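**User:** Hello, beginner here. Are you able to go through the protein record under this note? It all follows right here:
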Amino acid sequence: MASENSPQVARSEWWRADTATLHARKQEIEVLKRQLDAEQNAILAEINNRGVRGCSGHSTLAALIFEDFLVSDREAAARADRVLALHAGVVGGDVIPPLAPLTAEAAAEGAIGGSQIDAIIRTLARIPSTVPEEDVRGGEKILVDLARRAGPRQIARAGRRLLDKLDPDGKEPRNEDPKDTRPQLRFIKHRDGTLGLKATLDLETYARLKSDLDPMAKPHKAIDGVRDSRTQDERYGDAFTDYVRLKTTSRNLPGQAGEATHILVTMSYEDLIRDLGEAHLDLVGPISATDARILACDARVRPGVLGTAGEPLDIGRSKRTVSLAQKYALTLRDGGCAFPGCDMPVPRCTAHHIVFWRHHGETKIDNLVLLCTKHHRLIHHSEWKVAIAQDGLPEFTPPAYLDPSGEPRRNTMHLRT
């Protein structure tokens, strides 16, 4: 629809409009497109915070955008980055403020668009967490004001000057002799509440790690013509997650207090029973009750249940989950992740209690199913149901909004003996 000041011209008759009208209308349309993009980003942010993306089996917000909007990997990743940077998130039940709130306001006005937003958030993401918040917002305002009249190249140039001002020391000088590099590893909590690692590795460690991760990070096989939608970074992230899980189950690693490697999850007895509240993950902090239940399926997690006064009621034994013999039986039956269409092999899966252990589900074969990390979280977070059929094999029923027929599905990717 044209503005009040623009002549009314039928869409098929722009040849009748004068040049001034054409220029005015194209600018109006650009503003409308940007406003619609901002509205869609707000909707995607809400979907992401609710966890609805998991209900359809998407592993990330970028994967949802890739599959739902039929865009390229690169565009999906960029659009997901904008959503996460411009809107508040939820991590472990805590609301995390957006990285770029002033940018979000300008985007909602339709004053700036995608590539301009990308240039701003790339700069803001590089500002050290030690910089005071008021200085960060002041720098963002400078970039947003510039973006109203400049393109991404100028914004990036201004961003480099801003970083020089806020972080005059800049990056440490590059070591010209990487063979003498001393390995370093730092655990990081990012400004948006996510967790990460920063590492400097010697050549041998780098080569060993990459050699181990490369085969695990290969794209999954295409299923019904749909290829793996994960970006390369996401594939390596999934591979590293599975790598850590595999390595920490090794009996050759140093233990803690004479025991195998474990982590402690603590929550109150009432929260455990009522399915509410939050738990505390050792070395990390508060996590949701749902995440605690997922972790409780892992044999390397030691659950601690507290009474109303905080006294320990039960410190579960890590051996309570799946025995080696049971794992062999599950390997023979499931052959890998049992979720329909998943080709994840056995070493990258864990045993899930179909009737949750906290609901007195027993640790026996007909109450267990092998799931990869992605589909393990999906079962806990969504309305997907899993059951053991009469023939002894697991089958999955999707939520009604995905398949109203309620027809159970099985995995045909693994050969069973």
